[in-house]
């Protein structure tokens, strides 16, 4: 089957709402939906999170990261971790688990390698977005981290379906990006109940226009994408290596502190958060 036919087939599934998630991801989706209930008690939230071992581990790890553990006191149980992070961040981590499960949903070695690199890239973007939102664009940091977690979810879903469509990953990925990412990405974001402001920011991210000085959530994502030390394996390489050129240009437009100094000061936070998200 030719690639255009493959995208047509996947697109037909998307149009009818037939998005196929692995069983493990469906558990995390249910956790996320339950946490949307404003009447959900923290004890119930902790029990829901504990039902997914991977999510439990990530919640505790993020709660103990430098970003969220300013006091230096580590938590060792899920309830305390949920209390420290709050439901909004835990919901974001549930979506992170869904995305990561998509990355491991196939048994083909070549696809697993691409998915692993894509998740490594995603972790860096999410961590950088958190810092950039707080220090540069003055967006909500938790929202920015969430946007970073889900900004490649369309690619993860296509990877999870690649085993069903031989030839999907042949040659370069330019047609993948042009034909599949936005259409499938929109559908997956909808299934995951991603808030409209985040979905709109990701749409703008796909357009690729970075305003100077950067001020929006989309700018936050674009800047984090450019500065991520691990590039996305699904996007054709640009003229600069990750972080080169872009950082130099932005150092001229960030008021008071340069982008370089901001990233240097935040290096421990970025490293800690990236490590916690890398699972």
Please describe what this structure looks like.
The chain is an all-alpha fold and 279 residues long. It has one domain: Hypothetical protein af1432, CATH 1.10.3210.10. Helices cover 66% and strands 0% of the residues. The protein is built from 15 helices and no strands. α1 (3-15) packs parallel to α10 (174-191), α6 packs parallel to α9 (153-161) and α7 crosses α12 (217-227). The longest helix is centred in the middle third of the chain and has 29 residues, at 109-137. The two termini are 34 Å apart. Mean pLDDT is 81; it is low at 238-242.
Number of structural units classed as domains: 1
Largest sheet: none
**How many individual helices?**
15
Low-confidence stretches: 238-242
CATH fold descriptor = Hypothetical protein af1432
Roughly how many Å apart are the termini?
34 Å
How helix-rich are the residues, as a percent range? 55-70%
User: What is the CATH class?
Assistant: Mainly Alpha
CATH homologous superfamily descriptor: Hypothetical protein af1432
Estimate the strand proportion.
Answer: under 5%
Tell me how many strands there are.
0
Shape: globular
* Named CATH architecture: Orthogonal Bundle
Helix/strand layout:
Elements: H1 3-15, H2 23-35, H3 42-50, H4 53-63, H5 78-85, H6 87-103, H7 109-137, H8 141-150, H9 153-161, H10 174-191, H11 196-207, H12 217-227, H13 246-250, H14 259-265, H15 267-277
